[in-house]
Write a structure and sequence with these properties.
About 35% of the residues lie in helices and about 20% in strands. The protein is α+β, with helices and mostly antiparallel strands. It has one domain: Class II aldolase/adducin N-terminal domain (L-fuculose-1-phosphate Aldolase, 3-Layer(aba) Sandwich), CATH 3.40.225.10.
């Protein structure tokens, strides 16, 4: 059965809010509608209380085509991801404690994870022995600039599953909302484990 984009976003919002990954109206979620359009959450709404009134239809340049709310500036990062990879069907941006703290502790260009069985939750991974690299972009309030930084990084090496914005949070995606949710949950588990390992001084 083909998923309904509006319902998929609303259900993802309730699920994410229940895990406290989007406090204080933070975060934003989207689903691709077709080759040229996406549906995305409006700015400033509680993600566990979404309805169709909180969803905006936008083109892949971030222009609003339908809906009455205010688009988030971060819409440009969602639409740039859809431009960069036609296989991406849904994008979830969250603000968990683990992803935010790790993105600051790790001062390099990526967070490297290895040795966790849960790595197999990420598409294409079949072993805990692989090294998983999650890119980290420095935060910036100019989303056009940040989306250009993402595109430049992607041209060097296309990203998989997600990336971190330093001191800000995680962007994760998948071919559809179900896969995006699996990647989000898998990475959040990995981040929580990694943060605990560092807290215990074992890394």
């Amino acid at each position: 059965m083909q998923e309904n984009p509006s319902q998929a976003i609303i259900e993802a919002g309730r699920w994410i809010q229940s895990r406290h990954w989007c406090p204080a109206t933070g975060g934003n979620f989207s689903a691709r509608l077709n080759d040229n359009e996406a549906l995305i959450t409006e700015s400033g709404c509680q993600k566990g209380e979404l309805s169709t009134r909180n969803l905006l239809q936008v083109d892949l340049q971030g222009n609003v085509l339908g809906g009455t709310g205010k688009p988030s500036a971060e819409t440009l990062l969602h639409t740039r991801l859809y431009q960069l990879d036609s296989a991406i069907g849904a994008v979830l941006h969250t603000h968990s404690v683990a992803s935010t703290v790790l993105s600051r502790i790790e001062t390099g260009a990526c967070l490297t994870l290895s040795g966790y069985e849960m790595q197999k939750s990420l598409a294409g991974n079949t072993t805990h022995e692989a090294q998983i690299e999650i890119a980290i972009l420095d935060n910036h309030q100019d989303m056009a600039f940040l989306s250009d930084q993402l595109a430049q990084l992607w041209q060097k090496t296309p990203l998989q599953w997600g990336f971190l914005v330093r001191g800000h949070g995680l962007y994760s995606w998948g071919r559809d909302m179900q896969e995006a949710r699996r990647h989000l949950e898998g990475m959040e588990f990995l981040f929580a484990c990694e943060l605990e390992m560092r807290r215990l001084g074992t890394l």
